[in-house]
Amino acid sequence: MPVDDNGFMKVDTRQLDTRVRVVTPENIAFQYRIAGPFQRLPAYLIDLGIRVGVCLISSIGLTMIFGLAGLESVGQGLWLLLFFVLAWFYGCLFETFWNGQTPGKRLMRIRVLSIEGQAINASQATLRNILRVVDALPGFYLLGLISAAMNDRFQRLGDLACGTMVVSEEPHWLRDVAKVKEPDVLRLADRIPASFQPNRSLARALAAYVGRRAKFTPSRRIQIARYLGVPLREQLGLAQRTNLDYLLCALYNRAFVTDEAPESDEPETSATVTAQVMDGVNPFAPVVAREPAEVKLDEGI
Hints:
There is one protein chain. By secondary structure, the chain is an alpha+beta fold. Helix content is 52%, strand content 9%. The protein is built from twelve helices and five strands. Helix 2 (72-97) crosses helix 4 (122-130), helix 9 packs across helix 11 (244-258) and helix 10 crosses helix 11 (244-258).
């Protein structure tokens, strides 16, 4: 595998899955998971249903109200105005004042952001919704689907034109205690010194990692685990070839499965300092710490 001039393995920064990383000018990184078509299509259908429902109800109501007064033409004019607003400005208004969400997007837990990870403004919301007409050509959103399939962020033409992307909002809680029973993990857990006890911050990071590692590819696991794994591997005096993914799982087993999680009021140790530093680069938090230095990765056991 490629290494740099210092003999360290070069980390592949290419996008490995639907997560994207946005770095601000202050060198602060944000991570988002891009919303795929199976989330965006239901949101679109929900919004379409709302618009159709409002049009039908308003048509009946305006016809009854103005029909009794003999002003059918006025009622028809108001209905056409309402139809125009719903057809062209429904998404614009909601995404502007609901921070990148429409009712459908809110129900599906997705949101429109700029490619810099910032909230979109009114001009971006308006442009991406008006260009939806172009994405729909020549029918069934064919151009939009082709455009989304050709880039990693699933951006249709409207998103490309105004610099936006649709991301998924992920819940930040964990449910049950996961159990990692892989033989290599169990063997590595036996090699961890009995005196090592993670503090609350480190325990939270381990729980977040193990609770979601099954969703990641092996390459993604190595990429994430290095933030905590490298300093912990050095602190525990383990071999350089120790698998960082297995190391975090072994520490998790020690904290939550083998032993009870400690509620210690002891003074901060080096483990505490490590946990506090690495807590800022938790890959599952919306904000990630500053870019870490290159580290040497080993994928062996």
